[in-house]
Amino acid sequence: MPKYISILGSTGSIGQQALEVISWFPKKFKVRGLAAGGNVDLLAKQIERFNPQVVALKDKEKEEELKKRLKSKRVKIHSGLSGLVEVSTIPEVDLVVVSLVGVVGLIPTLSAIKAGKDIALANKEPLVAAGRLVTDEAKKSKVNILPVDSEHSAIFQCLQGEDYSQIKRIILTCSGGPFLNLKLRELRKVTPQQALSHPTWKMGKKISVDSATLMNKGFEVLEARWLFQVEPDKIEVVIHPQSIIHSLVEFEDGSIKAQLSLPDMRLPISYALFYPQRMGKFVLKPFDLTKLKLTFKVPDLGRFPSLGYAREALEAGGTMPAVLNAANEVAVKLFLEEKIGFMDIAILVKQVMDKHKAIKPPSLKNILKVDKWAREVALQSIVHSP
Predict the structure, then answer these.
(1) What angle do CA 282, 285, 290 make, to 5 degrees?
(2) What number does CATH give the domain 3-148?
(3) Of 57, 190, 254, 303, which has the highest C-beta tally within 10 A?
């Protein structure tokens, strides 16, 4: 029997690569749902190729535009948050790939989990903002959360067959982004175009900026805490510019396991799609160990404070990570619109965090309310670094 798939964020980078992997194995996977933002042209092409039953777009206007394009096609078309929930809860679907951008992925992820669907999670924000709620619901519903991030997929693979109580350290590797070697005065002058030019990975705009500030790695620390149920002091970050070792796990006996591969997101995507099996033969260029030069260094929190602020949010707990996430979403958007500078992103996030007292333990209602509050405060707190 094939595995039935829904993809939230099908026109984004991860969504497109997931569909590419699926297209290689038409007998193993069938697409039943697709959700996109506003790229009607690409979604229409995906519908023609993969023949889903249900699709969704971000708003009513785009929904109507797609309906006009697909007059002869039998597919249910929805929009907005309710549309995302429709796509994530199709009865026959086995696995939902969540590759949305931002906290918008939280409600459909929880809805899919409650409906008994396994989750292939590429959307960081649900675990960042509501890690305990999401993982508790997954336990309750007895579903798998399969990480798609290359780092968390690496950790997940290293932990197969292992006793989680024997974890001594989880070591997240980080490329360092495009500004790894820039001085502080140079960082204040970088442009959105420069921030979008990642040296290793081809990614969407927001995650590219988050990688440049190292906030992305801070989010991954928060994700690792919940995905692998380890205490924050057991999670470390090292800069590894070559992006060959995707992460490591050290055990109490001193053994360290690492997962290595050339940087290609189709590998962690395929691992999540095929789990608990592996995909089989996938041809990459030859992996020559004799030509590898692997280096590591400690992150500089003076130049990249966002990583430190993410740890502060994790230590504060409760609703503070939701504030971190919401403020960062606003700050990144303002930076891409050239309304604030690159270093202002971290300043703005910290200002909003400082105005919030964490609510513990947080309910979904608390998290959504705090998310809205943090966005409003961030927009009112625009500052410029000296």
Answers:
(1) 120
(2) 3.40.50.720
(3) 57
Nearest Cα neighbor of 168 from 222, 230, 122 is 230
* Angle, CA 33 vertex, CA 29 and CA 38 arms, to 5°: 130
Burial 228-248 (b: 16+ CB within 10 A, else e): bebeeebbebbbbbbbbbbbb
Q: Which of 248, 226, 8, 20 is nearest to 123 (CA)?
A: 8
Q: Which of 208, 190, 152 is nearest to 303 (CA)?
A: 190
pTM of the model: 0.93
In 79-102, which positions are buried (b, 16+ CB within 10 angstroms) versus exposed (e)? bbeebbbbbbbbeebbbbbbbbbb
What is the residue type of 233?
D
State how far the Cα of 342 lies from the Cα of 313, in Å rounded to an integer: 21
Beta partners for residue 257, in sequence order: 249
Q: CA 218 to CA 314: how far, in whole Å?
A: 9
Output 296-300 pairs: Cβ under 8 A, ≥24 positions apart. Answer: 296/173, 296/238, 296/239, 296/240, 297/238, 297/239, 298/238, 298/239, 299/174, 299/176, 299/214, 299/217, 299/237, 299/238, 299/239
Q: Where are the alpha helices (DSSP H) in 214-305?
A: 215-227, 266-274
Asked if residues 115 and 140 have their Cβ atoms less than 8 Å apart, the reply is: no
**HSE (side-chain half, CA atoms, 13 Å) at 315:** 9
pLDDT (tens digit per residue) in 284-343: 777 888 999 999 999 999 999 999 999 999 999 999 999 999 999 999 999 999 999 999
Res. 384 pLDDT band, cuts 50 70 90? low
Residues of the chain with CATH 3.40.50.720: 3-148
Largest CA distance in the chain: 63
Amino acid at 253: D
CB atoms < 10 A from the CB of 63, how many?
18
- For residue 27, the surrounding DSSP H or E stretch is none
* 385 burial type by CB count under 10 A (0-12 exposed, 13-18 middle, 19+ buried): middle
Contact 103, 126 (CB under 8 A): yes
Three-state SS at 26? coil
Beta strands in the chain (DSSP E): 3-8, 29-35, 54-57, 76-79, 95-98, 118-121, 145-147, 167-174, 235-239, 245-251, 256-260
